[in-house]
Amino acid sequence: MSTVQTNHVSAGENLNGTRLYPLLRRAQLSKFLNDAQLKELESFCRSISRSAGQTLFRQGEEPTTLYIVMEGSIELRARPPGRRVYRTVEVVGPGCTAGDEAVLDESGYLSSARIQEKARLLTLGTKEFERLTASRPEMAIAILRCAGSCLIQTIRRAAILTQAPADVALGILLGELSADADRNGDGEGAVRITHAQLAGLLHLSRETVSRMLGHMAAMGDVELSRGMIKVRSA
Fold this sequence. Notes:
The chain is of the alpha+beta class. It has helices at residues 21-26, 35-41, 126-135, 137-161, 166-183, 195-202, 206-218, and strands at residues 46-50, 55-57, 65-78, 87-92, 97-98, 112-125, 190-191, 222-225, 228-231.
């Protein structure tokens, strides 16, 4: 499967020709930029929609685009040195970023990105970011701060969840993912994620994750279905 290319649409507009400002206000960028700056950022961004299963970029490719997830989710997968199998590194949800390497002067993407759930994305190309850096350096710094906050989330999960007891780590992760789903309109704590993806995030075997989920289901803590886990409130 080839990497998906960004559609050619006018900067500052989405695929339907509407303005991007309302979308920008929903992203974590709103924590770092004021309303006037968000409106100005419209001229540097584009909006695209992608279906589940499509690839945004591959590990090792030259970084060209930063993606801001507005709806849906992206699975980041990487193959560690000496390994033949890719593992899930992170599942990026609404408000956060993927492809941060494009604005961090990296020579290649550190992971591959695949659409997990049909997604609506804002894109910022490397050339647009360079233009933004030259004309509006304070806005470029804000974008870097936003990307950094999303990277910290990934590092936190790697540093904390992989060191906690397996059952504790799984409970914490499902709780966080369920809370994210609620905030983004699901309202039922339903997490779209597979056992294999959970295993990659927690550095556990798929069999171990499936066994723990089976126990949680028997205890009434979760409901399991294909590609979906519904977390019940305590």
